[in-house]
Amino acid sequence: MATTLRIPKAAVSMREGTLVAWLVADGATVSEGEPIYTLELEKSTMDVESPMRMPPTPTVTPRL
């Protein structure tokens, strides 16, 4: 089952960010509030937390 994760808007003027690290191992269950990826913004970097508990994660394949 697919889960859509939205990139949080860190500032009103934010237009883009770069996913620089995926923090969850393949096959791991994710708890609500657990950091799942690192997002690099124009002036800072932030870890983004899971909005909900998710079942074991499949291999993450980014779309290009």
What does it look like?
Helix content is about 0%, strand content about 25%. It has strands at about 20, 35-40, 45-50. The protein has a three-stranded antiparallel beta sheet, with no helix packed on it. A hairpin with a 4-residue loop joins strand 2 and strand 3. The two termini are about 20 Å apart. The mean pLDDT is about 80.
Task: Describe this protein with a few key phrases.
64 residues, mainly beta, three-stranded antiparallel β-sheet, 3 strands, 0% helix
Write the layout of secondary structure elements.
Layout lengths: L17 E5 L12 E6 L4 E5 L15
What is the helix/strand order? EEE
> What overall geometry do the principal axes of the alpha carbons give?
elongated
Number of alpha- plus pi-helical segments: 0
Distance between the termini: 21 Å
Radius of gyration: 12 Å
In short:
This protein has 64 residues and is mostly beta strands. It has strands at residues 18-22, 35-40, 45-49.
